[in-house]
């Protein structure tokens, strides 16, 4: 059998559609996939199309839709490769797969909308190759990370691994706020800092370390306290906030600003051998989720909430917690997996156990369930960030 005969055979069970019909249907829920190779697509692709090269189609289609009745239109350069690819998808169980007749050549002839898709350059494709190999993340997720902005509050024990892993993952802009200087007692756990940066501002020390790890990303530093007067100005424009602070008042302030600005708040905390992680995001559209005040409506008495400086902490513990926080942030920013919402994850290092507790939005929450979230209550004792 020659190629032409093979294509004719496929046409008997794969319908062909014209470009105009494909264009109209994509605005009505059909998925249009440009299956050409990267080199072909970088000059332009149909505006509403996903770009998945033919060789990856079978693996990646399941991330786009698991609905076997979904209308899927495949487009290549001239409408030949798309026939073969459509036949493969049909064999996988997708019932409504079509090949776009004439392909991208015809799309351009009909002057239909074309866009130049965002793609990783060779340097970044190499650097983040291990991410690109994961279908759930891939080039699309990596591009999102590179365009993302994360604010880390506290360059301490939790903020250190968070910052390092976000920088390593290629989060394009990392903001760090901390008004403290590096102390020798920090080096037991705050792995952003070194003996050489003792007595220098933590944000400068952090920037130096992160710059060595990834010179491509933007690092914004804020060598100041977070207060109700500057919180919105600093947080605005960030896609996510990571709270690695060590006192309830700052956590409430971070929570309240995140609720108001609708920013997800990844929270980590530690006490001696125990760590906690949760994601608070009341603006999450898919379901009702709690804020930090839903979990802790009032701060515990000071004697029950001593700081690390008072109570001590196992140095590696904020590392575990920070890595879990960084994982949640990367999932949210690259849009894969399910964020740790409505859950409190507790890690006990002494017993080597993880526990997960369900947490709900409180109907009587004084903040996220209040009609007016424009105000900031009084926060006492925010003298410093007291990063863990
Ligand atoms: Zn709440």
Question: What can you see in these coordinates?
Answer:
- The chain has 388 residues and is of the alpha/beta class.
- The protein folds into two domains: 3-115, Oxidized Rhodanese, domain 1 (3-Layer(aba) Sandwich); 148-358, NAD(P)-binding Rossmann-like Domain (Rossmann fold, 3-Layer(aba) Sandwich), CATH 3.40.50.720.
- 35% of the residues lie in helices and 17% in strands.
- An eight-stranded mixed β-sheet has the order 10-9-8-11-12-13-14-15, with helices on both faces.
- α10 (159-169) runs parallel beside α11 (202-213) and α10 runs parallel beside α16 (317-334).
- The chain is elongated.
- The N and C termini lie far apart (70 Å).
CATH architecture classification of the largest domain = 3-Layer(aba) Sandwich
What general form does the structure show? Answer: elongated
CATH classification, class level of the largest domain = Alpha Beta
Please name the CATH topology of the largest domain.
Rossmann fold
Stretches with pLDDT under 50, minimum 5 residues = 381-386
CATH superfamily of the largest domain: NAD(P)-binding Rossmann-like Domain
Helix count equals 16
Largest sheet: 8 strands, mixed
Mean pLDDT across every amino acid position: 92
Distance between the termini: 70 Å
Q: Helix fraction?
A: 25-40%
Bound molecules: zinc ion
Structural domains: how many: 2
Report the structural category: alpha/beta
Would you report the number of β strands?
15
Q: Tell me the strand percentage band.
A: 15-25%
Strand order of the largest sheet: 10-9-8-11-12-13-14-15
Work out the radius of gyration.
25 Å
